[in-house]
Here is the input.
Amino acid sequence: MGFPEGLGIVDLMVELPRGGPGMGMKEASRLMRDAGSREFSHHPAQYLFKDAPERMADAADPAHVVALMDAHGIAVAQIDVNPRKPEHALELFERFPGRFFGTIGVDPNQGMEAVRDLRRAAGLHPNIRSCALAPCLYSPQVPIDDKRMYPIYATCIELGLPVNVLVGVPGPRVPFDCQRPERLDEVCWFFPELTIVMRHGGEPWVDLCVKLLLKWPNLYYSTSAFAPKHYPREILEFANTRGGDKVVFAGYYPGLSWERVLAELRALPLRDHVWARFLRDNAWRLFSLDTLV
Here is the structure.
């Protein structure tokens, strides 16, 4: 059977180009110190995503992005929602019904203001379905298991929102200690009702990520920021065996092109019964996408 054509893929990390820097560039620039990083124009890890500026430099009409999604079989995409400037995301939800859902980015350094931002944004539209945390990009950085994170986690449980969190050594040239995957262990233990989705690979501790995925029912793994040919071997083996319900697809447009991602996806050694779970069903369940409007 192989890759299932016409499935209707759910892509869990898409950013619509705005004509300038994006994908965490503004946040990372506050922390990066080396001269090379100061030369990056659009992406905070531009040395890894060398062709991303070409896509990001276009102030793309959202209709063009939706046309690209249609061309590559992307039925639904998760996009960022700025809780203080949510208008762009809200317009997309209304202009393209059922095609986008939102993840709210908050800064735990802001304490109760972050909690209030999260509560306020979650009530703006029924298609806002999750929270996004980037420990390495906050200034100062906030470790996954830090006390500043706990009010956010508790609020997400109350609101019924899964949390997307960056894990592993980041691409931007900033410290990584805040994103060590072992920091998830106590969070998963203390908040068993919280659904957590690891983003950005967890390298070089992928074996540990797999152990944690096996251990904790509330923990999942997203393939964001990796071209499929670079997906960790341990994750593919996990998806093919005991982790078919725990791995979800994220394409990372415009950091990576859908042309490349979809072409490389077709070459993955996934078992037939895993494809639909990985590309659609797991995300559909985690984010309750049957109720999108």
Summary: The chain has twelve helices and eight strands. The first strand starts at residue 9 and ends at 11.
